[in-house]
Amino acid sequence: MKKTILSFISTIGIPRIIIAGFLTFLLITAFVLGMDMKRLLSDSLVRIGRNSLFVLALLPPLKAGVGLNFGLSLGALCGLIGLVVGLELGITGINHILLASIIGVLLAVVIGYIYGVLLNQTKGQEMMVGNYMGFATVSLMCTFWLLAPFKNPSLIWAIGGKGLRTTLVLPEATGQIIDKFLSFSFFGFNIPTGTFVLSSLSCLIMYFFFKTRSGLSMVAVGSNPIFAKASGIKENTIRIQSVILSTVLAAIGMVIFAQSFGFVQLYMAPLMLPFPAIACILIGGASLRKATLLHVIIGTILFQTLLTITLPVVTQAVAISGEAGDITEVLRVIISNGLILYALTRKGGD
Amino acid sequence: MLEIKNISKDFFGIQALKNISLTLQEGEILGLVGENGAGKSTLMNILFGMPVIHETGGYQGEILFDGKPVIIKSAKEAMDLGIGMIHQEFMLIPGFSIAENIKLNREPTKSNIFSRLINKKLETLDMVTIREHSKTVLQEIGLGIDELLPVIGLPVGHKQFVEIAREVDKSKFSKVKVLVFDEPTAVLTESEAENLLQILKQLAHKGISILFISHRLDEVLQVSDRVVVLRDGEKIAEKNQSETNIIEIAELMVGRKFKRFEAIAELKPQIEDITILKINNLKVSMPGEYVNGINLEIKKGEIFGLGGLAGHGKVGIANGIAGLYPASGEIQFQGKPLKLNDPNAFLNSSLAFLSEDRRGVGLLLNEPIDFNICLTSFYIKGRFTKNLLGMKILNQSELDEYSKKIISDLDIRCLGPHQFVRALSGGNQQKVCIARALTMEPQLLFVSEPTRGVDVGAKQKILEILVNLNRRLGMTIVFTSSELLELRSISDRIGIVHHGQITDILPPDAPDVKFGLAMSGIKGVVQ
Amino acid sequence: MKRIIEIVKNNPIPVLFLVICVLGLWITKIPLPIFINDLITRLSRNTFLVLSLIIPIIVGLGLNFAIVTGAMAGQIGAITVIELGIKGLPGFLVACLIAVPLAIIFGYLLGKIFNIAKGREMITGFITGFFANGVYQFIFLFIIGTALIPFKDKTILLPQGWGIRSVVDLYNIQYAVDSILKLKIPIGRYFLNVPLSTFIIIFILCVAINYFIKTKLGQEFRAIGQEPHVSLVYGINVDKNRVLATIISITLAAIGQLIFLQNLGTVNTYASHEQVALFSIAALLVGGATVKKAAVSNALLGTLLFHSLFIISPQVGLKLFGQPQVGEYFRVFVAYGVIAFALAMHAFQVKTGKK
Predict the structure, then answer these.
(1) Segment B256-278, tens digit of pLDDT
(2) What is the rounded CA–CA span in Å between residue A16 and residue A21?
(3) Among candidates B254, B211, B258, which has minimal Cα distance to B232?
(4) For residue A6, what are the contacts with CB-CB under 8 A and spacing of at least 6?
(5) Which residue has the higher pLDDT, A177 or A95?
(6) Cβ B75–C233 below 8 Å, yes or no?
(7) Are strands B303-308 and B493-498 parallel, antiparallel or unpaired?
(8) Which residue of chain A is at minimal alpha-carbon distance from C144?
């Protein structure tokens, strides 16, 4: 009996159990306090859809043995450029989304390629190099946002008239356009159908991708690069492909995120973007060596739900004002970094 | 001085040492010879308390040092007892100077106010003394170089002498009683080796006992007082230097009653007089291997054995041809030239390679059996595919069917095609490798060390599979193995590699001594 | 001339930054005395922190991104001293007395973590810094002032009665060290304020580090940094020495942060420590250090150049683009960029070295 429990715990993984337990506790608390459960869960659904692509973007490099992509923000920046160009040109609605995606993807392919080559040159230190490449690029882009010749008055600072604002509001026609597509109410839950269809579709494509020649060679390279070489697979090319794929997904992910959020946040906003996404996939049960689609899905659901309901529940329970600082933010920092730390210190990275 | 009594050691059920007993007198040089896998390094690891020994369940038997029983748990303890070692791979700090390396962790220091107040470790290094001592010892061993040079740029021979200098210097300040030299002449030129043998004698003269491990039989006989021969983890013989000769030692080292494999005796060879593979001046740069101008012709339908001592190049040949390590030379397969340094070209020419490094190269340990079996042929040949909206994706049902069949054909003991390879035993993992190679439907198969780390039953099964492939299906096999007996049991011809070249090609029933001498690079002395 | 080329070749990064700084000075035309005065202040503030990074590099741990935890220990000390109401130099010393044991504990734990995550020390240290920061925020925002950790001094608590304010005035220990021995050098209309006492402390640390490298323990550290396996075979206790090196680094960082704070006079409770690792590491690397190699000279030169850039870049932004923010973002980019570059170079060298 004890043995089965122990083996059950080790298959599920201690972090997943702790997070799931904490989540259950919060949900029960919310229920006891008589909070609006439907709203809490609807909000969670929105956040799950919003973030899912970022988490999915982590999968290809993990599979290919490149490790956790701490440079996810590079892809997100490509998406941001696409969005801002759309805003500048005054394009709204679905065209805005499409234009932003196309620009984002094109840029992401180029950036992803360069980034992939860099990571190949720095094999063994990909995570640290990727992380600081991300940081450096985000801060370099800050000067771009300030200096780029954008003219649209709704985008630039009112005073001084130079440089983009830190937060840009998406026009009515663009905000939540995908979320609202086919959206319906189900027992009072608002389902952001479009975004869910889109992320499910992405997951499905990813599922089949890992059955194709490229996809399976990615798995082989990640599992044993020398085996892959002996099978005629070019390790470096495959690794670059995985990084490009990740960057492209992150770019699209940024567009999805922004339309759902309704705002485009510039400057230092994308700096820490990879961390919650990484936390998601790790909660889902992934390790530095092994990650699956299931890890992505479970992790996103658990972590995003947790983040969504913590603040309202804690506020209600302790009756503290927002002035005390955002406890969700603190929890996010502790949980996501705690999880990454846990993954890093597991023996052999398994 | 040192007495090893009835030492036995097994790794996961595979016996590495059986009841070995040795004695080493004060000031004596004892030569230790044996083929690879004879148990020399395991014995040394036990003597040095290396973690591999203790992590795998320790050993049986007793070591007496100075008449007292000791259990050595770490290299530090061995050193404290007075056992020193000249390592095969250099244990030097590259960025440190020669002098700093000689005195590593034995530095003379001067005390100062902080060391007295806080900790002895804060004593300052006495660089003057470090230099003086190093200078003296370098002169003693005849290495006339500046002791302040960093080790990093030194030629390998010099590095070896720095290691020796360290042990010699140590012997002046602390009780060094036993020194182990593990293949010290492997990297030296002839004159350097000569110099080293002189140093060995001098050290023995001072009363230090020396254990000298070498493949070079002539050197062993030149300096040793006694020679001990190990084979298959057992002590085969112990001879006084004056009572033996190189031929006897060579015979003892190899000699076993060889027996042809049953299946091979039953089935007729299908050898045709066509050269299927022609190797011309093949050179491969693979770490730890030396392939320097191999010329060889393999006939269609034969099992060609490749033997020789470790590091001499037998393993490098197949690795080079398969494109895993940089190679040069000309290869012709079925009359067509084969592009080197390109695994794709190799695999596309109906060739397949079973690596000697099963876990490192041959398998995806964290993936299921069916994935391991199919990947290469899926990738190279597009087997097991189906169409999905114009994309070619893996056809899981076809693969399942195929894997089940080959699992039963090769008798792979597992829970089914979806079991992870890591969970399988060594023998079954090897069968998965074979299954993968067969799925490629090759004309010629390179097999390296297929029975290494495999239990006896599985060993037989694997050899049987190879024989069946050859005798029934006509597949040409190039079979590399460190176990001569195994080579001789199934090969039709055996090439012995020495120092990167083929010394001799022998029939399997040639006399033992011919094999022994060929391995030492001597061809056809005995008629 | 040949010598100059040689110097440029061997120290490309410091030379590059020297050129940038000189260009910047020329463009902005900041009066030299003002610039130097500013620079002296920044040097006295930051050098100690930068020096705390050297020992872990020698022992092979790489860039210690986790000095953030040391900085936290320092801040805990500083805030506790306010609560205790001790002023001036005694206050500073008490703060050290509180911070150092904490730093030793943090360093010990961190060293243990590094030993588990061998080969991934830098990313582990980096993430540990973030993680510790989360815990720190949790304690300072939600625990302090409640029944769990009572706090008397209400002036630095948030209005609701618990949690420390985001900016705390450190009037009680301001200039505690700087003012022991101060020089005021007049240059024309301007004055140069030199906190000589602080510089003496920094000088002592420099000498101590250089002395330490020449001791038996220092030699062990160097050996481990190059070849941990060989060191182990020759009886050097690798794991223990790595933990020791981490403790030394974190402890120095704690003291360094206190020196930083006593000069600044205020503490940004939730932000002051966050950038410590970033700016200190960037400074060290600008001075020509690498992931495997660092010396006191790198730290001194690096702090000098990096902080010159810090002073100049907003002015350059203003002059060239009409926006000081450009310069501010640019210096953040430089900090991240120089670290990214050093890490990439390191990984590249390790990779090619293997072949």
Answers:
(1) 666 777 777 777 778 888 889 99
(2) 8
(3) B254
(4) none
(5) A95
(6) yes
(7) parallel
(8) A324
C-chain residue closest to B77, CA distance: C235
pLDDT tens digits for range B107-145: 888 888 887 888 888 888 888 899 999 998 888 887 778
- Chain A residues in contact with B392 by the CB 8 A cut-off are 212-213
* Separation in Å, CA of C234 to nearest CA in chain B: 7
CA C222 to chain centre: 22
User: Which structure tokens are listed for B244?
Assistant: 């033996």
What are the b/e assignments for C91-117, b being 16+ CB within 10 Å?
A: bbbbbbebbbebbbebbebbbebbbeb
- What is the amino acid identity at position B406? I
Q: Which one, of B51, B65, B149, lies nearest residue B99 by Cα?
A: B149
Cα dihedral A10/A16/A18/A19 (nearest 10): 180
* Interval C315-344 mean pLDDT: 83
Q: Which of the residue ranges A69-73, A282-286, B366-370 would you say has the lowest mean pLDDT? A: A282-286
| A126 contacts on C by Cβ (under 8 Å) | 347
Phi, psi of C141 (to 5 degrees): -90, -40
ipTM given for this complex: 0.84
- Kindly give the interhelix angle for B512-519 and B246-254, rounded to the nearest 10 degrees: 100
A312-335 in b/e burial notation, b at 16+ Cβ within 10 A?
bbbbeeeebeeebbebbebbbbbb
Please give the sequence-ordered ranges of beta strands (E in DSSP) within B285-413, or none if there are none: 291-299, 303-308, 327-333, 336-337, 351-354, 385-388, 391-394
Question: What pLDDT shows up at residue A54?
Answer: 92
Chain A: closest CA distance from residue B344 (Å): 5
SS3 B30: strand
Local confidence band at C57 (pLDDT 50, 70, 90 cut-offs): very high
Q: Could you tell me the pLDDT band of residue C128, with boundaries at 50, 70 and 90? A: very high
Longest dimension (CA), chain C: 70
Q: What tokens appear for C56 in the block?
A: 């872990």
Using alpha carbons, list the distances in angstroms from residue C335 to B471, C37, C177, C328.
68, 22, 28, 11
**Do B489 and B506 contact (CB within 8 A), yes or no?**
no
DSSP B415: S
Tell me the CA distances in angstroms from C196 to C33, C43, C185, C264, one per residue in order. Answer: 17, 11, 12, 16
Judge: B119–C217 Cβ closer than 8 Å, yes or no: yes
Q: Residues near C336 by Cβ (< 8 Å), separated by ≥ 6?
A: A132, A135, A136, A138, A139, C278, C282
Considering only CB atoms, which chain A residues are within 8 Å of C117?
344-345
Res. C239: pLDDT tops 90: yes
Give yes or no for residue A63 having a pLDDT over 60: yes
CA distance B384 to C337: 47
**Rounded Cα distance, C140 and C164, in Å:** 6
CB contact under 8 A, A147 and C326: yes
Tell me whether residues C236 and B92 touch, CB distance under 8 A. no
Asked if the model's pLDDT at residue C96 lies above 90, the reply is yes
Mutate to test the interface with B, among C59, C204, C210, C215 (most CBs of B within 10 A): C215
Alpha-carbon distance of C23 to C17, in angstroms, equals 10
DSSP state of B322: T
User: How far is residue A30's CA from residue B329's CA, in Å, rounded to a whole number?
Assistant: 74
Which residue, A173, A211, A112, A175, is CA-closest to B386? A211
* Residue A52: CB atoms within 10 Å: 28
Residue B253 has pLDDT above 80, yes or no: no
**Which DSSP helix (H) or strand (E) runs through B62?**
strand B60-65
Establish if B355 touches chain A: CB-CB under 8 angstroms. Answer: yes
B342 C-beta neighbours (distance < 10 Å), count: 13
